[in-house]
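Working notes for the structural subgroup meeting. M.R. asked for a predicted model of this chain before we commit to crystallization trials. I am recording the input and output together here so anyone reviewing the notebook later can reproduce the run.

Input as submitted:
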Amino acid sequence: MIKYFFKYYIYNGASKFIRSSFILPLLTIIIGCFVMMMSFSIMEGFSNEVSKTIYFFDKEHSITINKKIFFNKNSKNDLDSLIYFLIQKKYFFNAYEDRVMFIDNNIHKTTARVYGVTNFDSFKAIPFLLNPDTSINKKYLSDCYLGYNQSINLNIESGEIINISSVLDFQNLNTFPSDYFHVKNVIKTNIPRYDDSVFIKFDSLLFSKNIFLNINLNKKINEDDLAVINATFDKGILYNKDNHLFSDLIYAINYEKLFYTFFGLFIILISSIMLMGFNISSIVRNISSIGLLEAIGLKKIYIIFSYFIYAIFIATLGFFISLFVFNILLFTDTNYHLMDYIFDPSVYFHFDLRLSNDVLIKIFLLDIVLISLSTLYPIYKISKLDIIDSIKNRV
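Returned structure, recorded in token form:
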């Protein structure tokens, strides 16, 4: 049975070559599945690296407090009570205020977003530090982390000193609060918001005119705890759970992932249409043989089933060949960092290709479904064949 299946669908005995009706659909299935695997693995690896970076500085769930409104209805003790409640419930990660301030190295002056982090000593940005943290604070100034772009602008390296000035808090036109900081290390994330910034321990003098306090959370607040917060501190609090700072970027990544999926599906759809055409051609070419097989007792359902099995066979074979090629690429990237030659880490993120089993199963099922659809019309065509007309080669 396997021998006849091979001769009928795959190998052309007259020309001694594999049939084009087998090769062409198989190639398009391989290309379509590989495009989906490759695009998903790149976008998954990239989005994972971007998300990991973003959620280190700005967690997925956070609370923004408008202090002008909050303190109009509550007191400073109420803010401390809110933070204590979040710590007790294990929601609290850190809190920061940010403002644009002047920074300089006594020669060059520029502006930068300055983050005032409440628990600065536990602010461990190790994955994003440009150099090993070996600088020694010889003058015993407050430490700070300087964004990579600002270190380039000011020609500042780890261990040097910068001055930060809070321009909105001036007492007159010639004086305004300022302080010197020791650059503990340089942070490089490849995200401008952070690479253009400076991270310091919260200073009430430098941030005295700030309105917004951002509290990063370890996890999503459950409904009961959120009800307690809203009931106790009902003014000046915004819980950010759906409207993240980088929602548009994350949405764009998911949209691009969807685009490449449709591109891969389109290629497989071409294979499906091509396979349907070859199957119909095969039925017309072998109509007499089909009639004879029916005449000697072979049920029509078995003939129909053979076309369906052929479609499943070619779809499965194409998927596993593309998976094999993808794994070769994955091995090459893991051992020789192939993606670094395509996406320069100095410009883009360094990321690893990632492809989950769930995605592979979905690609396989889409492949099977689309190719199976190509058998519907040929199956309908066979079901309508008359034995006598088939033997006489009349459709």
